[in-house]
Amino acid sequence: MRRNEYTHRRRHISNRHLSDKYYYAGEHETATGIRLTQYNEQSLHTKEVRITDTSFSKLTDSNQINWFEVSGLTNADAITRIVKDFGLHNLDAKDILTPQHVVKVEEYKGRMLIVLNSCYYDVNNEMRSEHISILVANNTVITFTESNNPVFEAAHKALLSNMLNIRKKGSGLLLAFLLNTIIANLVESASKVEEILEDIEETLLDPKNDQGNMGSLIQQHRHEYMIIRKNSLPLKDQFSKLLRTENGIITPDILPIYNDLQDQLQFVIQTTESCREITSSLVDLYISNNDLRMNAIMKRLTIVSTLFIPLTFLVGVWGMNFKIMPELDWRYGYFIAWAVMIATGVLTWLYMKRKDWY
C-alpha cells in the first residue's frame, strides 16, 4: 500500500514551476546507478561509479572518450550534480528528470543536450516507452535512462568490435551509435505495428474469420502507433539542429552517418502515416462488417417472419369462435389444415428463393 501511495504521489510531480530543486516525475522506481566506460584506440575498460562521488568530471580522462551510463533517475540530487558538474544549468536537470518533457536538441558552447523518448516491444510483446537524455561535453558522453534495461547494448558491442573505427573517433561517433540504437527501435516498432495492422486488415476482409475482438485490437495498435509518432515526429524536427552544429562534436567525416539516421527517422514518419491511414480504413471496415453482420441477422429474422405471416393468418382464421365453420366438423379438416399450412410455407420459401431475397 505504501508503494502505491508513493507511485501515486510521484505521478503528480510535474516540475513545471521554477525551483532550486527538481524531482523525478516518472513512474520507474529503478535505483540510480552509474557505469563509466573509457576507451581509446589502445584500451577499453568499464567500471562502476559511486553516486556519492563529489565530482564526476574529475573521473574523466582527457586522452580517452568517457561514457557515463546513468540508469534510474530516482536520485534527483545525483542527476542534478552530474548536470551542473559538466557545465549545464539546473533547468537542464529538470528536463532530464521529466519524462513528459518535449523532445529537444539544445546546443551550448562545446556541449549538447538531447532529450527524447524511445519505444520498443518487450519480451511479452508489449510496447514500452522510455525517457532518454544524452549529454555530450567535448570527449564525454552521458546517457540518462529511466530503467536499467540494456538500451545501448548495441553500442557496447560496437566498442568491443571497434565497428567503423569507433574507438579511433571522437564522441560524435559514439553519439551516432547511441542515436542509431534509439532510432532503430523506433523503426522496428513502427514496422511491426504496420505489419500487425495489415494482418488485421486481411482478417477483416475475410468474412469467414472470427472478428469478435478486432475492435479492441485496432484500438490497441492505434494507441501504439500514436506513441511512436509522438516520439519520432518531434525528434525529426529537432534532428536538423545536429546537422547544423558548429561545436565540433559532429565532424564532417561522420556527417553521412547522421544523414542516414535522418533518413531512418523519415522512414518512421512515413510508416506512422501509413499506420494512420490503415487504422482509419480498418475502423470503417470494422463498422461496415458489423453493419453487414447485423443486416444478415435482420435478413434471417425477416425471412422467418415472412414465412410465418400466412401461417399466422390461417391459424387466426381457424381459431375464430364462429358456430358455422364446416372445417371444424370435417373428419379430415385437421390434416387438410396442416397440408395447407405446409404448402403455404413451402411456396413462400420458393418464391423468395426465386427472387434471390436470401
From TrEMBL:
One annotated GO molecular function: magnesium ion transmembrane transporter activity
Residue intervals passing through the bilayer: 301-320, 332-352
Localization of this protein: Cell membrane; Membrane
Gene3D superfamilies assigned to the protein according to its UniProt record, in alphabetical order: CorA soluble domain-like, Magnesium transport protein CorA, transmembrane region
Keyword Thylakoid carried by entry: no
Alphabetical UniProt keywords: Cell membrane, Ion transport, Magnesium, Membrane, Transmembrane, Transmembrane helix, Transport
Entry annotated with the keyword Membrane: yes
Chief location bin: membrane
Catalytic activity from the UniProt record: Mg(2+)(in) = Mg(2+)(out)
Membrane protein topology class: Multi-pass membrane protein
InterPro entries on file: CorA_cytoplasmic_dom, CorA_TM1_TM2, Mg/Co-transport_prot_CorA, MgTranspt_CorA/ZnTranspt_ZntB
Superkingdom, taxonomy of origin: Bacteria
Gene Ontology terms: cellular component: plasma membrane
Function: Mediates influx of magnesium ions. Alternates between open and closed states. Activated by low cytoplasmic Mg(2+) levels. Inactive when cytoplasmic Mg(2+) levels are high.
Family: Belongs to the CorA metal ion transporter (MIT) (TC 1.A.35) family.
Protein name stated in the entry: Magnesium transport protein CorA
Taxonomic lineage from the root: Bacteria, Pseudomonadati, Bacteroidota, Bacteroidia, Bacteroidales
